[in-house]
Amino acid sequence: MPQPPKRPAPSPTPHKGILHPRNRHQGRYDFSKMIKACPELAPFVIINPYGKQSIDFADPAAVKVFNRALLRQYYGLAYWDIPEGYLCPPIPGRADYIHSLADLLADSNDGVIPRGAAIEALDIGVGANCIYPLIGYHEYGWRFTAADIDAAALASAGAILQSNRLTSHIALRQQPEPDHVFQNIITLEDRFDITLCNPPFHTSLDEALSGSRRKWKNLGKLDPKRKLPVLNFGGQGAELWCKGGEARFIRLLAEESARYGQQVFWFSTLVSKATNVEGLEVALKRAQAQDIRTIDMSQGQKRSRLVAWTFLDTGSRQHWRQTRWQLNAR
Fold it and tell me: Per the annotation, which location comes first and is thus the protein's main one (predicted)?
């Protein structure tokens, strides 16, 4: 399993903020190396207003090929693709979430990150892109179970896994009921060391469309003569919006997590809106979570936070660590 390179001195770019020290996406990208790894990127490379090589982030085709090049160069993926209209995520921020979870596990393990196939992670809402399991497996060797409600998204994720011979390391499960998160996914036999989730944060399609137009305007790209994508970075319904938006979804996460509190060491979710953190913490305290952590995250102008919680008491956590992590940490 490759080890991360030493961290170079970062230089500011429009699409990367202050990243985790182990994040591979530090500083400016070397487009010559990216094109060598992924020749189909070449036609999409432009010179930005700063005189630097970049791509047009308003072009969905360019963004998809750019992601493909990143995954090929930094994570060794021979194949990566998603259906038209599905979410094409910014990879540096996704990697930051994985590295932050590794730090969370290390904090429970005398500063040593538990690595290898004994560590089981559950991704709620894996999407068509399968990004979190791909990065988590590559960086730390963790095994993943990846769940989604969308059959087409799971088919896309499955094609990525099969093409890269990762089906023995990353398993897919479909959630049959839209009003459940962990129910139907976590079985009696399952034990997960970490769960992760990037919840839909809009309450409706109209709200998602409005958010995209606002982002294009802020970026100075809302040119009436130019045809722009309806949704920046794409996205289907379950990826971007749900009834009640982020606030309702993370409250459901908290409520359902309590039922599986002895089968999971750390639950976690991203929270896009700072105003939703307090409501989540209230719900978790009501559910009698033993420990709640909030970790600030950022990428460029985007601010987010990771909230993690556990229902295991100190003794149970110690037993879990001794039986599952002790022989696998390095």
Answer: cytoplasm
